[in-house]
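Typical record was shown:
=====
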Amino acid sequence: MNIGLVLGGGGARGLAHIGALRAIDEHGLKPIAISACSMGAIIGATYASGHNPREIYEIVDSISYSQVLSFGEKGGLLGSKGLAKILKKHLPAKFEDLNIPLEVTTVDVQNGSLVILRSGDLITALTATSALPGILSPVNYMGKYLVDGGLINGLPVDIIRTMTLAPVVAIDVAAPPNRELSFETQKPSMIEQFSRMVKERKLPFEKLFKRGLTIELFMKSYDIPQKIITDMRLSLHPPELLIRPRLDNQFGIEDFEKLEQAFVLGYQETSERLDNWTYSK
């Protein structure tokens, strides 16, 4: 059966999409259009380019933080040149070269509007939809400075409705807003960690981005309104099937070392939901 597929953003939590795609393939479902945001867009584009879920898993498993991120770009702590370099190795240059139509959400930081990218430069579009404000630098795309579409539309079911009349399956991996923060644990602040790295002339990205309290508070301020916005949009544009893999509340957007766990949970939840899904027009 043909379906429209929606893959939401969530950083490393989005690795669950790989397992979900395996379950979708095994159940004989064929995505004929994909709308996505952030990590969902990267996984979706890789799938749409012809890579199967096992190949996507192997690609992700071969990547390290130091390959992906870089310092020195304006408007963010980290840049996306490394990410773009990796994407170029595995993806075509343009949207038009994908096997499955793909549309991704971004936000124009100058006027606060939602920008949907669906044609032209695929690699730059993927870095733009993944540019988490404050962490990753905005991406200059055709004269606009774009950031992560999750600010406005992190699970774009409404977008897929404009692409296909097929039933829609949406995979939501966004971080839950109810995870608890520890204000008592004494950890070096983000500034202290960064200063130490500069003095030592080292760039241990994993240590920098591991959540101190500053990052935790920043992410909570992002997760809470994102959940409200997503729920509002889903009430207006519900998919035929909404799947939320049972990732732990403390599974962070930076926990890329948990690839296997995310894959398994994405696969299990999607398989279970598809086993019990009976679609009727």
User: Anything to note?
Assistant: Residues 201-209 have pLDDT under 50 and may be disordered. The chain is about 40% helix and 15% strand. The CA atoms of residues 41 and 104 lie 6 Å apart.
